[in-house]
Amino acid sequence: MPIDNRRFAGIDVGGTKCLGVVWQDGRIIREVRRDTPQGADDMISTLVEIVRELGDVHSVGVGVPGLVTREGVLRAAPNLVGVSDLAVGPQLREVLQCDVAVDNDATCAAVAEWSVGAARGVDDVVVVTLGTGIGGGLVSGGRLVRGTNGFAGEIGHMVVESSGPQCVCGQRGCWERYASGNGLGYLGRLAAEQGAAKRVQELAGSAEQIRGEHIRQAALEGDNEALVIVDSFARWVALGLTNLTNLLDPAMIVIGGGLASSGNVFLEPMRRWFEELLYSPQLRPHPQLVMATFAEQAGAVGAALLPKFAHISDT
Question: Which of 80, 159, 248, 266 has the fewest CB atoms found within 10 Å of its own CB?
């Protein structure tokens, strides 16, 4: 295969940080991080700053969380403050004067894992990104699934508990309220209220400050109370994964996002609960459950590849 010396910029906009990378000849050669800004104007200016810091590039891809049209307009983004109905693609093209592609961040993660990562060569894949919220990227029959408007894959807002806590989207009991990084923190705070998260609370400083990272650290230390919280979290994750499997029958489910870097602490209990909750588990092949190759970098890598793989879609 000939060497491709072109430099492709990709930016993943998350709930707390923006990660920009340069992808060249099959690898990341540069990385830039920024805190996620608030407001539409600051969002565009931050993206432009990241691209300029990344240097000369052939094209730019951006993954943003929420409902993204096929024209690159971000209609709604519950986890971004002060950002809605923002023409990310058109504005960046006007400023940067280069090829710009914009899509949902989890769709970008799916591009990365399907084209050069854990799901390479697999035709039916669901990529689930567990970060501030939950995103989904779908590949069916060897093609990206974007839906009629480009909004396919908003799996974090499947309602799994109709009387559950309110989600940032305005609904109650969305899957991401239990099974995202924020969801893990929520389960930890509930455990602390019952006196069942002493080491976690010690790491956090107070029950109100408990976040997913504190539970993960305590679990890695082998703390039994933290492991109970992880098991509850894994059940919520598996519940959504079995629903997706019943609907889509994928060959592989790739778990990405910030939690993917935690390895077997989460993956093993997820697998156990998945096998227990799946419809007729003894009578069907199970999809492979694997961690993403690029972990939290998947969205940025896939964004960089967006212009290159734009033709492999459901259009």
Answer: 159
Coil, strand, or helix at residue 27?
strand
The structure tokens 């209990």 sit at: 269
pTM over 0.85? The answer is yes
Give the CA distances from residue 45 to residues 63, 79, 120, 174, in Å, rounded to whole numbers and listed in that order.
Answer: 16, 19, 34, 32
Residue appearing with tokens 């890695």:
220
Q: Bridge-partner residues for 255, per DSSP? A: 128, 291
Strand residue runs (E) in the chain? 8-13, 17-24, 27-35, 59-64, 67-68, 74-76, 84-86, 99-104, 125-130, 134-140, 143-145, 252-256, 288-291
Cα–Cα distance measured from residue 10 to residue 90, given in angstroms and rounded to the nearest whole number: 16
Contact 75, 85 (CB under 8 A): yes
Structural domains in the chain?
A: 8-112+297-309 (3.30.420.40), 121-292 (3.30.420.40)
Q: Distances from the Cα of 75 to the Cαs of 57, 120, 140, 166, in angstroms? A: 27, 31, 25, 21
Tokens encoding 148: 């009629």
Average pLDDT, the chain: 92
Number of H helices and E strands in the chain, helices first, is: 10, 13
Q: What is the pLDDT of residue 314?
A: 58
The label of the residue with tokens 């588990």 reads: 281
Please give the single-letter amino acid code of residue 245: T
